[in-house]
Each structure stands twice: as C-alpha cells, then as structure tokens.
TrEMBL record:
CC cofactor: [4Fe-4S] cluster; FMN
Keyword Iron-sulfur recorded: yes
Gene Ontology annotations of biological process type: fatty acid beta-oxidation, unsaturated, even number, reductase/isomerase pathway
Keywords: Flavoprotein, FMN, Iron, Iron-sulfur, Metal-binding, Oxidoreductase
Gene Ontology MF terms in the entry: 2,4-dienoyl-CoA reductase (NADPH) activity; FMN binding; iron-sulfur cluster binding; metal ion binding
Domain NADH:flavin oxidoreductase/NADH oxidase N-terminal, residue spans: 9-333
Matching InterPro entries: Aldolase_TIM, FAD/NAD-bd_sf, FAD/NAD-binding_dom, NADH:flavin_oxidoreductase, OxRdtase_FMN_N
UniProt domain FAD/NAD(P)-binding: residue ranges: 379-641
This protein's encoding gene: fadH
Gene3D superfamilies assigned to the protein according to its UniProt record, in alphabetical order: Aldolase class I, FAD/NAD(P)-binding domain, NAD(P)-binding Rossmann-like Domain
Protein name, as recorded: NADPH-dependent 2,4-dienoyl-CoA reductase
Organism: Idiomarina aquatica
PANTHER family xrefs: 2,4-DIENOYL-COA REDUCTASE, 2,4-DIENOYL-COA REDUCTASE [(2E)-ENOYL-COA-PRODUCING]
Enzyme Commission identifier(s): 1.3.1.34
Length: 674
C-alpha cells in the first residue's frame, strides 16, 4: 500500500483554536478502572498506550457531574477540587504523544443504578429496577451548574475539552424525547422546551471554560425507541448546538433499552453512517461517525465519501492500541481487529467488572500483563493452534522463547474456523488473519498437518510442553443416538453434511444457538446493511419518531426446535449485552426454543421427548447434538510420567462453552509467566 491508502484518515482537523493530528476519535467507554482503588494509575497507562498508538482525540468513559447522576452508587464524578489530581495523571500521560483528550460528562438520569436517581419524569426504565424521581426546577438549574463545574474542573485537570453526553437514553436524551419527558412546565411539552436542558448546559459550560476549549456534544441522531426524536428535531437541535458554541458533534445511536442491536458483531460495519451523513449536510461544525467502524478501510471510506469529518472507534482501540500507527505504516493486515463480541468489554462493565478485550487481554491490564524479555530462552512445544495455543505461542516467542506450534489440522484457528461460518460472525476471520501475521512476525515455527504423540514430543527435547489441544464434543447417552440421522455440531459446521428441513437441536448453549442460526439463515445480513436494517425495523426514511418501522423478518429454510434439559430461560447463559439479540434472531425465524425437556429416545422418525408432563414425538429429519464438550488431554499423562514439564490451557484445561475469552487470556498469562 502507498501512503495515500488512507489520506483522509490522517488529515489534520483544524478546530480554530487547536488542531487534531488525525481524524480518529477514541470513543467513550467505561472501563471500571475509574472506580477501582488505584485505578487512575492503571487508567493513565491504558490511555497512554492508545495515545502512543496514534489516536488523535480520546474521550474518556462517562464521569458524573454530581452524586445523583452517577451510574452506580460508587460511580465516578467530577464535582470537587480534590477530584482533579487523579485525572491529571491521565491527561499528562496522553499529552506526551501529541494526542488530545476530553472528559465525558454523563448524568445517567433514570439509568442510574441506585435509589437516588432523578429524571425529567418519574418513568422507570425497563432495564433498571429503580424508579427515578421527577426533577424539580431547582434540581434542573443546579444540574446545569454542576455540568459547568465539572467542565471547569476537567479544564484544571488538563483536559483539552469535554464531551456532553446527550444520547444513549441518558438524562439529556430523556429530556429531549416525549418517551421520558412528560413534563408540562418550561422543560417539557414543545421541542423548544424539551431541548432547553441541552442548550443551557452547553451555554453554561462554554461560559465557564472560555472559547479555547473543546466541547463535543453527543447528539442522539437515531433513538431506535418509540416516542424518540424525529429527524426534524435532531436537525433543529444540531443547529441550535452549533449556535451555542459546540466544537464537534458526535453521533449517538440507540438507547440502552432499544430492541435493535447497534454494536454487536452481527451489525454490519458502518451500519449507521447514513444518518451521520444526513445530519452533517445541515451543519458546519465537524461531525463524527460511530458504531462498527473497525478497519482503516471502512474509516477511510466514510471520510472520503463525506459521510463524516471524523470516525469514532472505542472497542477497536481496546483490541489494538496500535491501530492508528499500524494503519499509518500501511500494516492494516497486522491490526488485531475488534470482532464486536462484547464478551470482555461491555458484558464486564454491565456486571461491574473491569473491562478488557477477548482478543487483547492486556486491555485495561497494561500495568499487570507486562510482556518482557525472558531471562532464559526455552525451547517450547505448543500442541494446538486454536485461540489459546496461538495467544501463548505468539506471546512466548515475543519474549524470546524458541516456540514450535503443532496442529493436526491444515490451518490455524481451531474452533474459530467453525465460529466464522455462523451468519453474523464473519469477524472471526479477522482474528485468524491477525494471528497468522503475528506468527510470522514473532518467528514461531508453525507445523500444520502434524498430529503429535507423546514419544514425538519427548524426542524433541523441549523444556516445556503446552497442551492447547482443545475439546471434543460430549457424548450423550440417549437410546438411538447412533442412528444415521443423528449428527454432531462438527458434522454440520466442519464437514457440512446435509441437513433436512426439520431439525431438533439438543443443547441450547452458545453452540446450540450458533448451529440454529446457521441452519435458519440463507444469507448473512451482517454483509448487507440495507437488508439488515429492514430486518430489524430501522426506518431509513425517518418517517416515524425514533426511526423505527415494522421489522421484516427473513424466512427460514428450516423448522428448528432448540431444546434444553434445564428449566431456566433458553439462552440465559449467553452474553449479557448480546444474548437478547441471538434470542430475537431465532424467534424471528420461528425457532421453537423449549426448556425443561426430557429426552427419551431417538427413533428413525425423530426424537421422543417429554415436556410439561406430556410425552411426544418430534418428527424431524435430523437430530443435532450440541450438548457441550470435554477436554482433550490424551497426551498429558504420558508426558508427565516421562518427567516432562506440561501445561494445560484453553479447552484442554476447562471445556466450558468454548470460552475464547478465557483461552486467549490464559495463553497470554502463561506465556508471560514462563
């Protein structure tokens, strides 16, 4: 690639009083470090690594302007002079690399997860057990002052600006929309009244911080909830914010309670850049595109086509802090691409855990998972080139070890090679590509198509043997399981055996859901934005409030029964922020999701089951077994008996629902310790 591959991405952006070195904004993401003891030292290291990686502008996770606006009882706020010092640790580290950083001011409103929450009206959020109190006029006026105070404190802490969070269904967004604003005073009713809070906050902030300070406003351009904004209201507010003195307008997409996915892996790349483009036409300040922008090619296309002036990426910079530098060096193939799985980032945050990243376990652990040169070079064998083996092999080789990676298959990736075939999970191709490049760069000796024996490994004179041999499907004891129409998930995803039009899937964990998705989808919508938008009911003509219309589900080529023994909700164990999407996908294809099932026997005509006290025959063409896995540790005992040092990682250690997050982290940690 030539230097002109991403000319728009690396063009500086002149803001008048200051300049950004490129068009990459690291979007706001709460990490959980904000609340940890000593967390700001770790947070400073986290942001420093992204600044060193080339990001032009960083926006922090949301910081409340007062106590009642906190996301949780012990959430971060910027309201007292003594809050300044810890934030200064962050800004000083970022500024060393020519990046700029803004603190996001976020009042959670009815999304505050505590009993002291306030909102425009006493309307409880469907995702929160706490009902808010309606704000008094005095509380509204004080909150405006608190925003201005927070901005001034941020300025003292060395921030280059603030982002006022006006989207995602938080307080300001709640005032803007009739869904949550049922007031009949000067702060409700007409849109002029409903947008008062947003404008008065910007006015107050600008008055407090002066002209030479960035104010970003996160404008909800597409609420994706009933009784949200109209497009005319979005444009009216955007123009009014310009007049009020905002420097940049950032795009907000969807409320947290919306039933339309906005960032999970099945959402097409850059699926919402069309609305940013529509709003940008009416404005003069720079406008930022967001959501599912995870490659420099996508970012460049958005900028080159005039859809936006900047691109926001949050999770892609968790996945690879060197994203920007690699793109500038024409090394896009070496970027550790975000696969939008949410498993270690958003899922963790919503469970009050520290965020990290499935494909980069060092994210938010920069001071703890430190890769240093090994004191003694070792000769190491790794058996299994799945996620755990790849993570270990590359990190160990980076540390200077002589690493030999074996796999009996003729390609790396292990179970990721099956996952990437699931409609909506095409991003898994990117992780395999990344590890393929990293293997070359780190000098790992890759030996594919080579099954290993204990004798062969012992003959290799290895100091350490790491077994990342993965899992094998669990056998189940049901009469008739040996019949020819009974298949395992590998028969379907690996061997592509023919499957009939009526199917029973035994096991409703992640694999059962994936197989059901695979069997009921003829075309992956993640590769077709227009069709995906129709399927989920996004009204791109914006005729309705919130940008919603009736969904148009795709028809399924098969009738599928997804069965589980447990009485719990089918799919309960799926990801906190993505499980509802998978359930909704299957529901739209009329998949029968049945819990509390007893399996009696499999017969040529189908499978006999019992549910709710009734025994019945499900007449199906195929029964597919997705009933979990067991570790594959065949080599361990022989090696240990011969005195060989052996380590188990990934599925070979614990075969829990093909947990790539744990596997990659475990491989990385072992490589750092070795």
């Amino acid at each position: 690639m030539t230097q002109s591959s991403y000319p728009h991405l690396f063009e500086p952006l002149d803001l008048g009083f200051t300049q950004l070195k490129n068009r990459v904004l690291m979007g706001s993401m709460h990490t959980g470090l904000e609340e940890e003891k000593g967390g700001f030292d770790k947070l400073a290291a986290f942001y420093e690594e992204r600044a060193r990686g080339g990001v032009g502008l960083i926006v922090t996770g949301g910081i409340s302007p007062n106590f009642r606006g906190r996301l949780a009882p012990f959430g971060s706020e910027m309201s007292r002079p003594w809050h300044v010092a810890k934030h200064r640790k962050v800004t000083e580290r970022v500024h060393q690399y020519g990046a700029k950083i803004c603190m996001q001011i976020l009042h959670a409103g009815r999304y505050s997860y505590h009993p002291f929450s306030l909102a425009p009206s006493a309307v409880k959020a469907p995702i929160n057990p706490f009902k808010p109190k309606a704000m008094s006029e005095r509380q509204i006026v004080n909150t405006i002052k608190h925003y201005a105070r927070a901005a001034r404190l941020a300025q003292k802490a060395g921030y280059d600006g603030v982002e006022v969070m006006g989207s995602e269904g938080y307080l300001i967004n709640q005032f803007l929309c009739p869904r949550t604003n049922q007031r009949n005073d000067g702060w409700g009713g007409s849109f002029e009244n409903r947008m008062r809070l947003a404008l008065e906050i910007v006015d107050a902030v600008r008055a407090r911080v002066g002209n030479d300070f960035i104010i970003i406003f996160r404008l909800s351009m597409l609420d994706l909830v009933e009784d949200g904004h109209t497009l005319d209201e979005v444009l009216q507010l955007g123009k009014a914010l310009e007049q009020a003195g905002v420097t940049i307008i950032n795009t907000g997409i969807g409320w947290h309670e919306a039933r339309v996915p906005t960032i999970v892996t099945s959402v097409p790349r850059a699926a919402f850049s069309w609305i940013t483009e529509r709003v940008r036409r009416e404005l003069t300040v720079p406008v930022v595109a967001v959501n599912r922008i995870n490659t420099p090619e996508i970012a460049e296309t958005i900028l080159a086509s005039g859809q936006a002036d900047m691109v926001s990426m949050a999770r892609p910079l968790l996945a690879d802090p060197e994203f920007v530098n690699k793109a500038q060096r024409q090394q896009a193939d070496k970027i550790n691409t975000c696969i939008a799985c949410n498993q270690a980032c958003l899922d963790h945050v919503f469970e009050n855990k520290r965020a990290s990243c499935l494909v980069n376990p060092r994210a938010c652990y920069e001071t703890e998972l430190v890769v240093t040169q090994a004191k003694r070079k070792k000769r190491v064998a790794v058996v299994g080139a799945g996620p755990a083996g790849l993570a270990f092999a590359c990190t160990a080789a980076e540390r200077g070890h002589d690493v030999h990676l074996f796999d009996k298959a003729d390609a790396i990736g292990g179970q990721f090679n099956y996952a990437k075939q699931i409609p909506g999970k095409e991003e898994f191709y990117e992780t395999i590509r990344y590890f393929s490049e990293r293997l070359k760069d780190t000098g790992v000796h890759l030996k594919l198509g080579q099954a290993q024996s204990a004798d062969g490994l012992l003959a290799g004179n290895f100091d350490e043997v790491v077994l990342a041999t993965g899992v094998v499907p669990r056998r189940i004891d049901i009469p008739g399981v040996e019949l020819p129409h009974v298949l395992g998930y590998l028969d379907v995803l690996r061997d592509h055996k023919a499957v009939g039009s009526k199917v029973a899937v035994i096991g409703a964990g992640g694999i059962g859901f994936d197989v059901s998705e695979y069997l009921t989808t003829e075309k992956s919508l993640s590769l077709d934005e227009a069709e995906w938008s129709r399927r989920w009911g996004i009204d791109k003509s914006y005729q309705q409030r919130g940008g919603l219309q009736a969904p148009q589900p795709e028809s399924s080529p098969r009738e599928v029964w997804l069965l589980q023994r447990k009485d719990s909700k089918v799919g309960k164990g799926l990801g906190k922020t993505s499980g509802w999407v998978h359930r909704s996908e299957l529901k739209s294809k009329n998949v029968h999701m049945w819990n509390g099932v007893t399996y009696h026997r499999i017969v040529p005509e189908g499978i006999e089951i019992e549910r709710n006290g009734e025994r019945t025959l499900l007449s199906v063409d195929n029964v597919i077994i997705c009933a979990g896995q067991v570790p594959m540790r065949d080599l361990q005992q022989q090696l240990l008996e011969a005195g060989q040092s052996v380590h188990l990682i990934g599925g070979a250690d614990v075969a829990a629902e093909l947990d790539a997050k744990r596997a990659i982290r475990q491989g990385t940690e072992l490589a750092i310790e070795l």
